[in-house]
Structure to design on (211 residues):
């Protein structure tokens, strides 16, 4: 029988991902039955992304990295991708969850790339459009989510650390937005002191050739 877990408060939400309950779900033979109102879950994600340090100060770097890793793991219930694609959540809330990720990078990941999860963060989020076979022409909702993802990645590309910039390039590579080549060309042009490996990474991202 699946393990029942109820996420009622914001503290429950934080504890689920960073306090080890998501790990228990992965290890449970029949998984977990996690109950949380989808719209409330979207609010919790926005709050966390906009105030990550305040919310996570009692956790270690390892726990923080693992918690964010669980959020993009399709095998963990109530992940961020589930919220973004939930028809039960108004599209403007889903869009705000995506846009709040720029604050997550600016407030936390730009200073501390942890153990690699910030770099991989956008891979499953951006790739989900293709996995679902849904592109901007499919619907106005998909267009809004697609453009919000692109604009958020462009904002992250403007942060100071090379690690954040590289994470944004990686996400842009997978998103395959029509504006990507021009944005990356401008990035390379305005950053003449980029290390050669970052410059090459950017050029491959512009072509959608990164793994």
């Amino acid at each position: 029988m699946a393990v029942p877990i109820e996420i009622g408060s914001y503290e429950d939400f934080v504890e689920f991902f960073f306090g080890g309950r998501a790990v228990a779900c992965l290890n449970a033979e029949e998984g977990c039955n996690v109950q949380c109102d989808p719209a409330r879950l979207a609010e919790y994600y926005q709050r966390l992304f906009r105030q990550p340090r305040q919310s996570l100060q009692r956790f270690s770097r390892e726990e923080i990295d693992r918690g964010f890793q669980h959020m993009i793991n399709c095998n963990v219930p109530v992940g961020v991708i589930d919220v973004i694609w939930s028809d039960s959540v108004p599209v403007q809330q889903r869009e705000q969850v995506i846009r709040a990720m720029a604050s997550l990078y600016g407030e936390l990941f730009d200073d501390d790339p942890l153990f690699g999860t910030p770099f991989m963060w956008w891979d499953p989020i951006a790739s989900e459009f293709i996995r679902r076979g849904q592109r901007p022409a499919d619907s106005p909702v998909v267009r809004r989510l697609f453009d919000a993802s692109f604009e958020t990645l462009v904002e992250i590309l403007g942060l100071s650390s090379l690690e954040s910039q590289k994470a944004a390039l990686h996400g842009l590579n997978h998103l395959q937005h029509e504006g990507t080549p021009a944005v990356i060309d401008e990035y390379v042009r305005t950053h003449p002191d980029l290390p050669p490996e970052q410059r090459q990474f950017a050029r491959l991202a512009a072509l959608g050739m990164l793994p």
In short: The chain has one domain: 3-206. Residues 3-206 form one domain. The chain has a mean pLDDT of 95.
